[in-house]
Prior knowledge:
The complex is a heterotrimer of chains A (334), B (278) and C (308). Chain A is an alpha/beta fold. Chain A has helices at 56-64, 89-95, 107-110, 117-129, 133-146, 152-156, 165-177, 195-210, 222-228, 246-251, 256-263; strands at residues 14-25, 28-40, 45-49, 71-79, 82-83, 100-103, 183-187, 214-219, 231-236, 239-245, 314-316, 320-322. Chain B contains twelve helices and no strands. Chain B has helices at 2-11, 14-36, 70-106, 108-122, 126-137, 141-151, 154-167, 171-178, 183-191, 196-219, 231-240, 247-274. In chain B, helix 1 crosses helix 12 (247-274), helix 2 (14-36) crosses helix 3 and helix 3 (70-106) packs across helix 10 (196-219). Chain B starts with a helix and ends with a helix. Chain C has 308 residues and is mainly α. Chains B and C meet through helix 5, helix 10, helix 11 and helix 12 of B and helix 1, helix 5, helix 6, helix 9 and helix 10 of C.
Amino acid sequence: MSQSTPENTSVPLLAVSQLSTRFRTPGGVVPAVDDISFSLCSGETLGIVGESGSGKSQTLFSIMGLLPPTAETSGSIRFEGKELLGLPPAELNKLRGERLALVFQDPMTALNPYLTVERQLSEVVQYHHGLSRPAARAEALTALRRVHIPEAERQLDRYPHQLSGGMRQRVVIAMAMIANPSLLLADEPTTALDVTIQAEILDLLAEQREAGAAIVLVTHDLGVVARLCDRVMVMYAGKVVEEGRTSDVFRNPRHPYTQGLLAAIPRLDDDIHDPRKAIDGQPPDLLELPPGCAFAPRCPLAGPDCRVTAPVLVPHGELGAVACHHANPGVRPS
Amino acid sequence: MAVDNGWRRLRRNPAAMGGLIVLGAIVFLALLGPCISPHAIDEVFWDRISAPPDFDAGFFFGTDANGRDLFARTLEGARVSLLVGVSASVISLFIGVTYGATAGYLGGRIDNVMMRIVDILYSLPFVFFVILLTVYVGRSLSTIFVTIGAVIWLDMARIVRGQTLTLKQREFVEAARSLGATDFRILTRHIIPNLWGPVIISMLLVIPDAILTESFLSFLGLGVQEPNTSWGVLIGDGAQNMMGAPWSLLFPGAFLAVTLLAFNFAGDGLRDALDPRS
Amino acid sequence: MLSVVIKRVVGAIPTLFVIITLTFLMMRLTPGGPFDTGRVASPEVQANLLHAYHLDEPLYLQYFRYLKDLAQGDFGPSFTSKDFTVTQLIRQGFPVSLQLGLSAMALAIVVGLALGTFGALRRNQVADHVVIAFSLVGIIIPNFVMAPILTLIFGVTLQWLPAGGWGNGHQLAYKILPVIALALPRISSIARLSRSSMIEAMQMPFIRTAYAKGLPRRLVLLRHASRAAILPVVSYLGPATAGIITGSIIVEQVFSIPGIGRYFVDAAINRDYTLVSGVVIFYGCIIVLFNLIVDILYGVLDPRIGRR
């Protein structure tokens, strides 16, 4: 696992600071992403973990500029030294698919059912690199081979519905990687797939990282993070509650939510009657967030202070940070 | 509770409420036509052939090419058009509910065959069959609404069948069956009475269809015959007479358009209110 | 692909038979024959007439005779226009009706799609509301009101265009008003339909994929959304054909255009059994044919249907 850190490079590839994304809905304003900051260097892999609704996917869509018109974004997203927020659509289009690319969660719906695999792959390089149709087709073939699609030549002229789920996700990854982007954003790339295929797709992402791309991987599966990511960021109700090196966070989770997530990973030596298995309760309604810590209603450690003031993210050690009034000071919970 | 919710949703929909109010007003005018209009529908005023509207003399919409009061005739047309619309949709209700409920309840192969027949009939140019029927059977008011009703039950049959398919899985049907009720009894006592929601919606969609078909036929001279009248007859006469008397086309035309618009809004609103999923 | 075509063609056959059989049964089983239209004829003459038209044969023989004649393109003689056969009348009127119908259909598709897409792209803005209002007008003002009003405004009052007639068949001016009058309700329906299907298509997940690839909005629309959006419009073309044919009867009547529709109305008023039945069967075939073309077109546009 490469252990490059921000100190190694002067300018990070991606620097997100104080990013907030709110959705206007009939019921009120939903703070989907609330004041989050992080940065990423070339070749680095960051995992973003959280339950559904924690804002992890919306963070990716904010970076890609793919939010619906009902969304308002504030803060700053600098990519390769360029501010993405407020960038004119034409400028943004030059970057999307070329320098930064997104792998979608559900390969069943992410591909256009009416166009062949070849058409959907080659239009990326046709548009960004001005390639002719035959040249783009050759690129598409290379891209398919890079993601180890069997009989790549034959798959080019097929339609998405003629491919299996795993094959489609490979096509989606090939589509994201075809123009050699420097940043790959992956939104739960394995959730919709069988377990056996999940492993293959993860290997594939690891290969893309070896080829030099930085990856932001959104997942609710901590196993995936442990396998692939240098650093991990845990989100809850739109906020970052803990971050740090993957090995540090896994060895010594400080936030009770992270502890709960880690405890929920099934292990072979589990005691089935362990009461600590899953986190009780439901993620909060973003329209009616409690004052203080959003996790307090579900937190085993919550005290009166937690229900009054929201904890801020406090750095600790190298790269670590946690937002909790009762954060574990550094001993492994047992 | 579902009904209350539906009613509340309907009342919060201004377009639907507007449509219902306009429909009410038109029904009111149609029923009270003879009392409201100062002139009889067939009284001929020789000194007023194709005369423009004259409020002082009580000719609100002017007169037609035969010197008859258009206001009275438009209201009479409303009576006939609404009558045809309602009767035809009642006939289509009987055929559609019987057919659809039978197909849905029996299910399986019988259902397949019955719905395939509906599909085939659906692709036929049904107006032509109405014309064909009026040619063979002869043109009277009752033929017209029977023939229109006989061809526009297809939507009703489809909707009722779908609804029956879900109803027959419900506990009360199971309960009735376990008590030994016959199929006929289950259909007539338990299934059909529970179909009213979608049936009312499709009635509201079928009535304007029937009115439009009747007007179409009457415009061509194939529908309602003199001395009876309907909006289609009036529009047809008005179209021939429009150079000298455009009002004879515009008033009945406007009544028809407003009625269709009102049915459109009321039907959409009712559908949204009773079926919030769509 | 070929198997799909064959399957559709075979599927269309029952519909054709239903049309022919229904028409035939209605013609033969309804009370009152074609010859008791008021003109008194002696029993011998009646019997001769019945014999001449094979009306004295058993029903099934008449049916097979009818089918055999139809297969040869023979719709029988017209009962009222003694000098013409039904086939001759259809052959005379059809080119005119076809030109009128196809022009109206083309206009409806082009303008309807343009309006619908325009409305969808400016959803909830003023332009969109104008499109919605326009499509409502086309639906609530039927052909037989719209056609005379158009004549009154542009033909009579403004005198920009001829108020009726078909000219010599090659004069564009005569065709403008009828084609517009015939197309308007279809424009409305297609605009309404394509607006909602475009809005739906733009919310498909694969549209977001296309944007994520960095494609400009224009390409996303033309290449990715339009394909999904056009399918509901394509399947509407079947009913639209029926609507155009029905409307053409009105338009031909209002503008005095010598198409099939005029013969049909005259025949219906005069209770010309064979001509009315012939035209119904003919129109039925056209509609079945168009539905067939639409089905096949749908199969071509949607790769999920019928290809392996």
